[in-house]
Amino acid sequence: MASIPDESKCQYVYLGKSGLRVSNICLGAMTFGESSMGNPGQLDEAGSHAVINRFVEWGGNFIDTANVYGRGNSEKIVGSWLAGQERDRFVVATKVRFPMDMSNPNAAGLGRRHIIESVEQSLKRLKTDYIDLLQTHIWDDAVPLEETLTTLNDLVRSGKVRYVGASNVTGWQLQKIVDLNKQLGFNPYISLQQQYSLVCRESELEPFQVCKLDGMGVLPWSPLKGGFLTGKVKREEKPKEGRLGWSTQSGSINMQSAPSWAALNKDSNWTTLDTVEKIAKAKGKSVAQVSLRWLLQKSVVSSVIIGATKMHQLDDNMGAASGWTLTEDEMKQLDEASKPEIPYPYEMIWRMNATRNNPWNPTGYV
What we know:
Helices cover about 40% and strands about 15% of the residues. By secondary structure, the chain is an alpha/beta fold. It has one domain (about 10-230, about 265-350): NADP-dependent oxidoreductase domain (TIM Barrel, Alpha-Beta Barrel), CATH 3.20.20. The strands form two sheets. An eight-stranded parallel beta sheet has the order 9-8-7-6-5-4-3-10. A two-stranded antiparallel sheet has the order 1-2. Helix 3 (about 110-125) links the parallel strand 5 and strand 6. Helix 1 runs parallel beside helix 11 and helix 9 crosses helix 10. About 40% of the residues are buried.
């Protein structure tokens, strides 16, 4: 494989207002190991390790997984690779919340018992004695937030977890987490892992505003929307390959992590893609690189989570990390082309505050 120029390698940024520095591109490990969901193109251990090694050549130091990915298979693969490395050179994130054993009613959720048990098992699978970033995978209506936050704080104090973050929450939920952590004097969340891309910008309305005000770094997942933002998908042609092809052919499936063709085949999305393709052609970059670079230049974003099952996919995505930028005008073109309809009262508030810019009070549209 080709060598990588230093100027093209990852930049290192702070994860939110914490002192933790991560590569501006994070390697997502959802494609590692056999999947319980039947996702196509999953990598075996050898293939996964090869992808991680190439990611490291690009300067990557940040790997994101979850206990539920392959019911532990992803963590095991990351762990077998990590065991042969200098542990303190890498930042490993995992998650807790989803069911790990469908026959056990206590093997899910954000209660004390399940969180502690999950962390103990994740540590074993990852072959490490600490988790750099533990993220609550989604909100849990069944458990008092005090129980969740107390447990997470105890894990940080014990040294088994270094930092905590959230994933897949609404604005009011994230604000409640922030406020209660402050009220109880607990360690704050430093990050929010949320779906974010040129065709999924809803979190700009509320969650990212909380991140801006409290110094949490955003970690976008599905930045290419299942392959839609790679330029390989064409109008009037249902995709047949990749994850988007799999979800389309599955018929009834329409999950956020595997969107259906009907959910994406909209004029507004094609307009966005046309703009990305125009800019990519002018800059001599791929459509995927421009899509990722748009995210990397958003002020709330710390690191963008990518996934790859083929080495050429990884190399292409990593080409967005450094060495070039989108101009202010190109960012504006992409913002305008992909801008969702802004509902009341957001549109009214932002319109009336368009000239009320105060750098010491960072509110307003992302």
